[in-house]
Amino acid sequence: MKNKLIVIAGPTAIGKTTKAIQLAQWLDSEIISADSRQFYKELKIGVATPSIKELEAVKHHFVGHLSIAEYYNVSRYEQDVLRLLETYFKEHQYGILVGGSGLYIDAVCKGIDELPDPDNNLRERLKDTYNKKGLEHLKNQLQELDPEYYKIVDLNNPNRILRALEVCIATGKTYTSLRQNEAKPREFEIIKIGLDRPREELFNIIEQRVDRMIEMGLVDEVQSLQHYKNLNALNTVGYKEIFNYLDGIWTLDLTIEKIKTHTRRYAKRQLTWFKKDQDITWFHPDEMDKIIKHINLESSK
User: Residue 227: enclosing H or E segment and its boundaries?
Assistant: First the structure.
């Protein structure tokens, strides 16, 4: 039988880590993280890094393996994961890829599209526009040039928006159209599982988790990183809002509400991305028996 890579995808706070660990123990496999926010060892509470107990329960890869000051991108991630799997599958039948970063999951499953090389002059002009007119101006420009990508991109990530605009302007085509090349062949089979809950249920969990993060010391974690707040790794939900609190722009109560609101919006964007993938079979996180049955069925084909 061919080796199988089980993908566990879904929005933030849906319960992916718990399900992945249960499946890994059942399949005697290891976990590969596809959550780009968990790559950085300095980020723990705000990105819901698996606990020490969870990390001990099953071996995890690509969790806390980078420093926030290190440059890393999705292309390097694709290469690193494929290199790992080449060795890993010599001793294991199954591997589990889990996360909420759709771009990183697609990189492993389909490969990175061949996009135009960066145009340094155009990039500098766009950066100048960003510095003078702000992110909102670039977001409006992207919405006009590529409304489809605008719906799924992380709108708080200026690097993603800059790159998309750069491609749109340089080629005269939408970034979306240039990202739809055929999937690259893989030496393993892929079984994709999506986790979802009713919106009210998910949003309640998000709010409870944000409150728990605050109780666990998220403010102190962010304060310890204040010197690095301009790094792209820290331009993420939960950290950028608390930087505003530490700078005296928002009260703590308003900051917490902003984190909850932005996390809900982030979850919606994640679901928009994943729902477009027809290869994903969806389950409620509590439907473990159905998930196992599905994996057994797909594995026997």
Answer: none
Measured between alpha carbons, how far is 55 from 116 in angstroms, rounded to an integer? 39
Look-up of token digits 């009260």:
251
Best CA proximity match to 125, nearest among 162, 159, 154, 150: 162
Query: Residue 126 has what pLDDT?
Result: 92
Name residue, tokens 């079979």: 281
Q: Bridge-partner residues for 214, per DSSP?
A: none
Structure tokens given for 210 = 């944000």
36/107 Cα distance (integer angstroms): 12
Q: Are 30 and 219 in contact (CB under 8 A)?
A: no
What letter represents residue 64's amino acid?
A: G
CA proximity to 96, closest of 19, 37, 40: 19
Helix H segments across 146-251?
147-152, 158-171, 175-178, 199-216, 218-223, 240-246
- CATH number of 120-178: 3.30.280.10, 1.10.238.10, 2.30.30.40, 1.10.20.140? 1.10.20.140
Cβ neighbours, 10 Å, residue 221: 19
Is CATH 3.40.50.300 the right assignment for the domain spanning 4-112+181-299? yes
Residue with tokens 């999705």: 74
Q: Where are the domains of the chain?
A: 4-112+181-299, 120-178
Q: Is 277 helix (H, G, I), strand (E, B) or coil?
A: coil
| pLDDT tens-digit map of 80-125 | 999 999 999 999 999 999 999 998 999 999 998 777 777 778 888 9
Can you give the length of the chain in residues?
A: 301
Q: DSSP letter string over 11-30?
A: -TTSSHHHHHHHHHHHHT--
With 0.70 as the threshold, say if the pTM is over it: yes
Q: Which residue has the tokens 């790992």?
A: 84
Q: How far apart are CA 192 and CA 266, in angstroms?
A: 21
